[in-house]
Amino acid sequence: MSTIAVLGAGKIGESLLSGLLNAGYSPENLLFTERYQQRAEELTKRYGVRATDPPTAARQADVLVVSVKPQDIEPLLDEVGELVTPDKLVVTLCAGLPTSMFERRFTSGTPVVRVMPNTPMLVGEAMSAVSGGTHATESHLDLVEGMLGSVGRVVRIPEDQQDAVTALSGSGPAYFFYLVEAMIDAGILLGLPRSVAAELVVQSAVGSATMLREGEGHPVIMREGVTSPAGTTISGVRELEKHGVRAALIDAVEAAHSRSVELGAKHRQETDSDGA
């Protein structure tokens, strides 16, 4: 079994560690890095996985999962860049950063796989999209899909679609939380206790998502099934349309897409300049 090192044990990094352990990986085959010693000690106590520093992880691991914020990537690459060779696999979870940026910083021929997960990884229900870089093979992609399958569902896409995935499923949980928050507030406005309103809305969201997943039909058809002539639901839907909620959601996804493109633009430009 490959030794996997998670570089950056924040929420997503910790969730991946937990998922891998639940999937049968031995703690002896896992490593992680964490800048704060107290948190590193807590995670080691919780999972039995050894904490180390990035250079040691780069030397000892077969698979390096880069799970830091995009703004923290340069210091990490400065530490491990020369230690990453083609016999290792790099898996990047960094939003907006292209595989070409990592390939440029590592030994020529190093395989890189780019992943866009989302925060439901915390409860084993992530939606992750994977894309292979120049040197990633089918076996590399299969390995990554197996890893991520332990914490949710996985799709394979061309890398030029990753910014769209970032905007849709990567940021998507925040949009759902926003809508749920608004619906709970509406329940409170109508006189319901907060706890009751939250229970009603959250369970309705869980049930609706389950119906969608189990293939009950297209969302339009399912919505129509709740919408009776001259009923309460159509009155509510009319208000949503009147206030442009559909257009606002589309604009939100487009704005997130633009930001994802912006995050990676600098690194893509540097790569293009190096290859010119």
Give me the secondary-structure topology.
Elements: E1 4-7, H1 11-22, E2 30-33, H2 37-47, E3 50-52, H3 54-60, E4 63-66, H4 73-80, E5 89-92, H5 99-105, E6 112-116, E7 126-132, H6 138-148, E8 152-156, H7 162-170, H8 172-189, H9 194-213, H10 219-226, H11 232-242, H12 245-275
Parallel strand pairs: 1-2, 1-4, 2-3, 4-5, 5-6, 7-8
Antiparallel strand pairs: 6-7
Helix pairs in contact: 7-12, 8-9
Structure description:
With 276 residues, the protein is an alpha/beta fold. It has 2 domains: 4-162, 3-Layer(aba) Sandwich (Rossmann fold), CATH 3.40.50.720; 172-243, ProC C-terminal domain-like fold, CATH 1.10.3730. The protein contains 12 helices and 8 strands. It has helices at residues 11-22, 37-47, 54-60, 73-80, 99-105, 138-148, 162-170, 172-189, 194-213, 219-226, 232-242, 245-275, and strands spanning 4-7, 30-33, 50-52, 63-66, 89-92, 112-116, 126-132, 152-156. An 8-stranded mixed beta sheet has the order 3-2-1-4-5-6-7-8, sandwiched between helices. The longest helix has 31 residues, at 245-275. The chain is elongated. It starts with a strand and ends with a helix. The mean pLDDT is 92. One of its GO terms (biological process) is L-proline biosynthetic process. Catalyzes the reduction of 1-pyrroline-5-carboxylate (PCA) to L-proline. GO terms for molecular function: pyrroline-5-carboxylate reductase activity. This is Pyrroline-5-carboxylate reductase.
